[in-house]
Structures are given as structure tokens and as C-alpha cells.
Specification:
With 270 residues, the chain is an alpha/beta fold. The protein contains nine helices and seven strands. Strands 1, 2, 3, 4, 5, 6 and 7 form a seven-stranded mixed β-sheet that branches. Helix 5 crosses helix 6. The radius of gyration is 54 Å and the shape is rod-shaped. About 27% of the residues have low confidence.
Length: 270
């Protein structure tokens, strides 16, 4: 005879210290196990996150422990080389090639610019005369044209239009076969010795090249003292350049004032 007790009764007996022996529960039948449905291999196991009634929260993305911020990622070799390379400097004007053929020149005979000026009204501080050597004016009519009119204005500002002994020796670019620089320099030396001016104004780089046998940049020639056949000389810009570069007019006027100061000092010392 077996004692059939439910779970409540068993619990009451256990509380009273009565041990109840009961046969073990029957195990699952092998036939039941054999006919149990086979789980679908493609089916995913259900957990608390995917069970009904729970919100579908996606799993967090895996974080690599050796990840580096974008700034720490090394640049490609070509990018590093370009960043390390210094910036290219702006190209500088190419210097004249050695042995470059300069334009042939022809020196015209000096002519007076203001021959009708009254010597009695000539300021004594202007000295005994002036010689101007330049390449940018018309040889036959040196005070005509844009460059000639600018030269005239420059000389009038110095009051040289009141001097009858203001001469210009014009240089003209000639066809191949013109005079050599040495020949022109010799001729200019003879002109200075003949006219005996108080000052020689050398206007432009080409005039300085043939008159003074100097090839330095014009800015350096303007700064230094010069002499031609024993006569003081001042180098400045030529009128054609001043027409193209208005900003250089102030520097040219400073050079002309310097020439006037040298002549005044020489006149005061005599």
C-alpha cells in the first residue's frame, strides 16, 4: 500500500520531523526522447534580451583595445615627406647670362638744351655748366616726346633752364656694328675735358655702363660717388624708366638734389 501525499502534506510532515520515504520519480521514456523534435540548427537560442516582453537592445559594438585616435594614425610616407619639405621660394629673376651681347650704341655729339638762356640771370650756385648723358631721349630733339618733356621738367625744377651751358650727350641704340663701349667712354672723356662742366648727370643703367664702365645694379650705382675725367658725376634713373615707374620719381629727385648740393659746395669752396 502506497501513501499518496501532495507537496503541502510532505512539507507539513517535514516540519514535524517525520521522514517520508517515497519512490523516485520515473525518468523520461526513451521513446519520448527519441521522438522529441530536433532543434533547428539555424535557430538562435532565446535569452532574456530576445524573449517576448523585453525591448530589442542591440549588443554593444566590440571595442578594440589597441585602437588609436585619428590624429595618432601615421600618415603615408608621401604625405609625411610633403609636410616635412620646406615651402618653395618664389623664383628670383634670372641674372644676365655670362657673355650676353649688350645692345650696340651710338653716341651723338653734345648739344645745348637752353642756348637762349641769359648768362647774367644764371644762378651762380649752378656752377659753370652741366652735362647729361642718357639713352632714353630723342637724339635730334632731346626735349620732345614723353621722355624729353619729363627731362625738361626735371631740369626746370633744378632751375637749369636758366643756364645756357646745359648739354646733353644722347646715346642711341644702333644696328650691329655700333660703337664699342670703350670707344664711347673715350669720346665722353674728351667731351668732359672740352666742356668742363661742374656736374655730369648719368641717367640710366646703360648710360652708366658706357660712361663709367660699371655694371653694378643701378641702385648701388646711385649710392656711390663717381667721377668722369675728374668731374663729379651722379647716377640716377632715366626719364623713360620714370615714366614706367612713378614710385621712383622721389628717389630720382633726391639724386638731383644731391647733385645740386655737390655743385653748391664746390662753388662755395672756390
Amino acid at each position: 500500500m502506497s501513501l499518496h501525499l501532495d507537496a503541502r502534506q510532505r512539507a507539513m510532515l517535514q516540519e514535524m520531523g517525520v521522514t517520508v520515504w517515497a519512490p523516485a520519480e520515473p525518468t523520461a521514456n526513451a521513446t519520448t526522447t527519441a521522438i522529441a523534435p530536433v532543434a533547428d540548427p539555424a535557430a538562435r537560442p532565446t535569452d532574456a534580451r530576445t524573449a517576448p516582453g523585453h525591448s530589442q537592445v542591440p549588443p554593444p559594438m566590440p571595442v578594440a583595445t589597441n585602437a588609436r585616435p585619428p590624429s595618432a594614425i601615421p600618415a603615408p610616407p608621401t604625405a609625411r615627406a610633403a609636410a616635412a619639405a620646406p615651402r618653395a621660394r618664389a623664383p628670383t629673376p634670372a641674372a644676365p647670362a655670362a657673355g650676353q651681347v649688350m645692345p650696340a650704341l651710338k653716341l651723338h655729339a653734345p648739344q645745348a638744351l637752353y642756348p637762349t638762356a641769359d648768362p647774367a640771370k644764371t644762378p651762380a650756385e649752378l656752377g659753370g655748366g652741366w652735362l647729361i648723358v642718357t639713352e632714353s631721349v630723342n637724339a635730334s630733339e632731346p626735349l620732345q616726346g614723353d621722355a624729353g618733356r619729363l627731362l625738361d621738367n626735371m631740369l626746370r625744377a633744378m632751375r637749369l633752364h636758366q643756364h645756357p651751358r646745359v648739354f646733353v650727350a644722347a646715346l642711341e641704340r644702333a644696328l650691329p656694328g655700333g660703337e664699342a663701349d670703350d670707344a664711347i667712354a673715350t669720346t665722353l672723356t674728351d667731351v668732359v675735358q672740352s666742356l668742363q662742366p661742374a656736374m655730369v648727370l648719368v641717367l640710366g643703367h646703360i648710360a652708366a655702363r658706357v660712361a663709367l664702365s660699371r655694371t653694378e645694379p643701378l641702385g648701388r650705382l646711385r649710392a656711390g660717388p663717381h667721377a668722369l675725367a675728374g668731374c663729379p658725376a651722379v647716377v640716377t634713373y632715366d626719364p623713360a624708366f620714370l615714366l614706367r615707374s612713378q614710385d621712383a620719381k622721389a628717389a630720382a629727385w633726391a639724386d638731383l638734389c644731391h647733385a645740386l648740393a655737390l655743385v653748391r659746395a664746390a662753388c662755395a669752396g672756390t
